[in-house]
TrEMBL record:
Residues 3-165 form the Flavodoxin-like fold domain. This is NAD(P)H oxidoreductase. InterPro entries: Flavodoxin_fold, Flavoprotein-like_sf, KefG/KefF. It holds the Pfam family Flavodoxin_2. One of its GO terms (molecular function) is electron transfer activity.
Length: 201
């Protein structure tokens, strides 16, 4: 069984619809630790030792957040700058995270079409996430395909809950170590490995 750590970042959770629902679903999955960064560090003073201990205790690290300006809310950048220390996370003696896996779980206002070459965002989501991908690589981690919810505006309750169910299935499969490297080769998003019957991506 893999231990999954969710590093959650939403600066205005009281106004959230999608991420709040994903939170509710993922808190039900055994083997998942939910770490709400804005709740713990509203002033952005990150407890580095606490965070490094959490990382050491888990096998799969998920950065869960709304997509803001083609990236994450700022606390995740602050977290990276402080927690991923030289010769701890990277560098010649930095092996604390080696062999672990990392992915993003994000929600985007833009639809999937908007993130095509011909769309108004011009590039796929996976290209915008390259800094996370490369950070994982530098820290000797494996970067997995992201979990992505598109077109968050005007989404029906049923659809939101379907994504919640979809996310819970992904998390359960990660905990149960059901995914093999070959599974990741054919999908853009990890969502596609655990579809729910009520909708297709
Ligand atoms: C400051 C801000 C920046 C945003 N930037 C993007 C963006 O770059 N791309 C995108 O697709 N959506 C963007 N959005 C839309 C959010 O990603 C979307 O509203 C959010 O994921 C919905 O989740 P929630 O209901 O949990 O807040 C942005 C929204 C805000 C408030």
């Amino acid at each position: 069984m893999a231990k999954v750590l969710i590093q959650f970042a939403h600066p205005t959770l009281s106004k959230s619809s999608i991420q709040k629902t994903l939170e509710t679903y993922c808190r039900k999955v055994k083997g998942v630790t939910f770490n709400d960064l804005y709740e713990y560090y509203p002033d952005l003073y990150i407890d580095v030792k606490r965070e490094q201990k959490l990382l050491s205790q888990h096998d799969i690290i998920i950065f869960q957040h709304p997509f803001y300006w083609y990236s994450s809310p700022p606390i995740l950048k602050q977290w990276q700058d402080l927690v991923l220390e030289y010769n701890w996370a990277y560098g010649p003696e930095g092996n604390a995270l080696a062999g672990k896996q990392m992915l993003n779980a994000i929600s985007c206002g833009g639809g999937r079409e908007a993130y095509k070459e011909t769309g108004y965002n011009r590039f796929p989501v996976t290209q915008f996430l390259l800094p996370f991908n490369q950070t994982a690589h530098l820290c000797k981690m494996e970067y997995l395909p992201p979990f992505v919810v598109h077109e968050t505006y005007n989404m029906s309750e049923d659809m939101i809950n379907s994504y919640g169910e979809n996310y819970a299935r992904v998390l359960q499969s990660l905990v149960n170590e059901e995914f093999q490297p070959i599974h990741y080769q054919d999908v853009e998003y990890i969502n596609e490995l655990t579809p729910v019957p009520s909708f297709s991506h």
